[in-house]
Amino acid sequence: MSDLLSKIAVPGDIRMLEIPELSTLAHEVRQFIIDIVAVKEGHLGASLGVVELTIALHYVFNTPDDLLVWDVGHQAYGHKILTGRKNDFHTNRQKGGISGFPNRKESIYDTFGVGHSSTAISAALGMAIASKLQKKTKRQHVAVVGDASIASGMAFEGLNHAGVSDANILVILNDNAIGIDPSVGALKDYLTSVKSGINPPENNMIKSLNFDYSGPIDGHDLPRLIRELKRLKKVKGPKFLHVITTKGKGLKQAEENQVKYHAPGKFDNLTGELLPNDEGHLPAKYQDVFGLTLVELATKNQKIVGITPAMPTGSSMKFMMDAFPERGFDVGIAEQHAVTLAAGMATQGLLPFCAIYSTFLQRAYDQVIHDVALQQLPVVFCLDRAGLVGEDGATHHGLYDLAYLNCIPQIQIVAPINELELRNLLYTVQLGIEYPIAIRYPRGRGVLKDWKKPFEKLDLKKVKMLKKGTSSAFLTTGTIGNNVISAFERATNNKWGHYHFLSVKPIDETVLHELCKIYKKLVTIEDGTVKGGFGSIIANFVAENYTDVELEIKGVPDEYIEHATVVEQQEYCGIDTQAIVEIINN
Ligand SMILES: Cc1ncc(C[n+]2csc(CCOP(=O)(O)OP(=O)(O)O)c2C)c(N)n1
Ligand SMILES: CC(=O)[C@@H](O)[C@H](O)COP(=O)(O)O
Ligand SMILES: [Mg+2]
């Protein structure tokens, strides 16, 4: 059996191969990805789908001199393996290992740091304009964008600019008709019509934007890809190649169940079958508590609508979309639109639950302020993946929401401590809210055996005393409070108090005054940035009112937190259970 992959240290080695050998290399790269992701986990389907494209790009273009930008970057495993990181690939997404996304610090072949989608066209155009100004006239600039990502506003902004430039940029649309969930929208319909040959060539929207358009071509046909890329290399100005691929290509189960195999967890590398897990007895995921509760509420409350920008499975908004197809909306990768769509609905008396990962709401900051809060519209932001998210790393943590929302007038921010409180919060807000509200909760499982209890109306401002102390107390918000609860079970000294702040904004100042009178020392703990978050709010209060209270703020330091498990990340930040035990014992 041939072993070409072991001979490829850098893309220059690929260029030494004959074209017929490249198919063998593709087979080996695919198997290499499968073997490692089966054990180490990570994104699978997207990388399997672009193995041939990756090889063709490094074969035709003179990387790293020519600049290759991957959009999102979850499909770049083949690229990493062929650009000097084959031997490190088993450390993918682990503490101290390589990142799951292209990262400029990691390799000269990673021209642009990614993780959030739809940035590649703008970045590659910026590089192309820089090359022109710097008289690097031979340099090529290539952006590879998926069909779901190109539908995002930012990608359109890039195309709009590139189309009137003479920049030497090639945009490759990797069209597999799916994002994480099936692609949506009119653009998807357009792409389907192009692929099925029913779109008249004169209606080609990419040509109308002044691109030299070619395709669609089979993205698994290496000779064809290479021919076309070589031709395009000689064409000046903005070019666009439409490539058709199959997500999960080469692994039957991944091709057949593309949503599940986007990031499948552990599986058998030979059969492709998912490995049985013993998670049945574990607490429910916050996402499922959210999604299932929303359906229960929407059954009685006709005002409720649900919106997700491209994450129906991840956020569990799919439950609402299945139960009430007319009231559940997946708008594609369009966070800004999702927020303003919710605002529009709210003006007409609907109550939108807009489920967005905290990290992706960063995209729609102006919309939160200008379209929702300023107009005091009752929109419920369900801020999923708040806090540290683990293996996706720095691009995906939800660490800034407390800080970036706290400074906006007319918005409430709440963070439940467990699944039951999340459920009751959802119930309470649908009874009616005067202001927009953001409910933040983390990725993954809760802490309770049973969350499906009869609904209870909550006092949204109430601070809950979880344990009375003598001279020191922990103040927490959200699920990180469970680390304090666990620490109390382990610690020897039991004199600390613990208070759970469901509401971060508005903060209950009456209770804060009481606490500052009882306790000499307060320690705030949050799974958000120490700068500007919960601890900062308490610090402002203490500084304005008291001189005799010692305050310590524990949270995520003012730096980017790399990929690792959530527990390892918490340890690094000093907010894990053991760190709290040590505070208590010292
Ligand atoms: C701004 C933003 N919103 C949402 C996501 C979550 N996300 C990651 S990959 C993905 C789908 C991408 O689909 P596509 O561009 O078609 O690439 P494919 O996975 O098919 O290769 C989504 C929605 C993201 N990374 N960035
Ligand atoms: C690449 C990307 O942005 C998503 O695939 C992300 O990794 C999903 O995160 P969750 O696994 O938390 O849904
Ligand atoms: Mg796609």
Automatic annotation (TrEMBL):
InterPro entries for the chain: Dxylulose-5-P_synthase (IPR005477), THDP-binding (IPR029061), Transketo_C/PFOR_II (IPR009014), Transketolase-like_Pyr-bd (IPR005475), Transketolase_BS (IPR020826), Transketolase_C (IPR033248)
Chain positions recorded as thiamine diphosphate binding sites: 74, 115-117, 148-149, 176, 335
Source organism superkingdom: Bacteria
CDD domains to which the protein is assigned, alphabetical: TPP_DXS, TPP_PYR_DXS_TK_like
Pathway in which this enzyme or protein is active: Metabolic intermediate biosynthesis; 1-deoxy-D-xylulose 5-phosphate biosynthesis; 1-deoxy-D-xylulose 5-phosphate from D-glyceraldehyde 3-phosphate and pyruvate: step 1/1
Binding site for Mg(2+): 147, 176
GO molecular function (one): magnesium ion binding
Pfam families from the UniProt entry: DXP_synthase_N, Transket_pyr, Transketolase_C
Family annotation (PROSITE patterns): TRANSKETOLASE_2
Catalytically driven reaction(s): D-glyceraldehyde 3-phosphate + pyruvate + H(+) = 1-deoxy-D-xylulose 5-phosphate + CO2
Keywords, alphabetical: Isoprene biosynthesis, Magnesium, Metal-binding, Thiamine biosynthesis, Thiamine pyrophosphate, Transferase
Domain (Transketolase-like pyrimidine-binding): residue spans on this chain: 284-449
Swiss-Prot/TrEMBL cofactor(s): Mg(2+); thiamine diphosphate
An individual GO BP term: terpenoid biosynthetic process
One GO cellular component term noted in the UniProt record for this chain: cytosol
Protein family per UniProt: Belongs to the transketolase family. DXPS subfamily.
UniProt subunit comment: Homodimer.
Protein name (record): 1-deoxy-D-xylulose-5-phosphate synthase
Source organism per UniProt: Myroides guanonis
